[in-house]
Amino acid sequence: MMIKSAILLVFVVLPGFAASVLSAYYLFPEWVALERHQRYYQQLSQSPSSTMRDLSIAQAAENRHRINCFAEGVGVLLGGIIAAIGIHGLCTLPPKNAEDP
Questions:
Q1: What is the dihedral of CA 7, 8, 12, 18, to 10 degrees?
Q2: CA atoms within 13 A on the CB side of 53
Q3: What integer pLDDT is reported at residue 101 of this predicted model?
Q4: Residue pair 99/1 in contact by the 8 Å Cβ criterion
Q5: Contact by Cβ (8 Å): 37, 93
Q6: Cα 16 → chain centroid
Q7: 61: buried, middle or exposed (CB in 10 Å: 19+, 13-18, 0-12)?
Q8: Separation of alpha carbons 67 and 61, rounded Å
Q9: Quick check: helix, strand or coil at residue 51?
Q10: Of 28, 39, 30, the residue nearest 68 (C-alpha)
């Protein structure tokens, strides 16, 4: 029984948690960059001297960071789901005294 718990912990719970933490680590700097580019795009769109080329470049930069934030957010969620599956497996293991000899 202890082997099954160790296997679930090492191969499911910990990698899921690690994937979630790693994705969150890369998500926060990308979120800051998205906010910065969004403010720049808004400022540029309100400027009377901006051209369509400037707006297109600023919009592309904002969309790039938006897509990256989405991808990292999905990584956080998928890592959490994998960890939750492992925790569920640990919780549904039969008790130690119900084990057959």
A1: -80
A2: 0
A3: 53
A4: yes
A5: no
A6: 11
A7: middle
A8: 10
A9: coil
A10: 30
Computed on alpha carbons and rounded to an integer, the radius of gyration of the chain in Å comes to 22
Query: Angle at which helices 52-91 and 14-46 pack, to 10 degrees?
Result: 160
Q: 73: which residues sit within 8 A by CB, 6+ positions away?
A: 23, 27
pLDDT digits (tens, 9 = 90+) for 39-62: 999 999 999 999 999 999 999 999
Amino acid letter, 76: V
Q: Residue 92, SS3?
A: coil
Alpha helices in 47-101 (DSSP H): 52-91
How far, in Å, CA of 44 to CA of 63, rounded? Answer: 15
Q: 24-43: string of b/e by CB count within 10 Å (b at 16+)? A: eeebeebeebbeebeeebee
pTM: 0.85
Question: Largest Cα–Cα distance of the chain, in whole Å?
Answer: 81
Output the six-digit token pair for 78: 């998928």
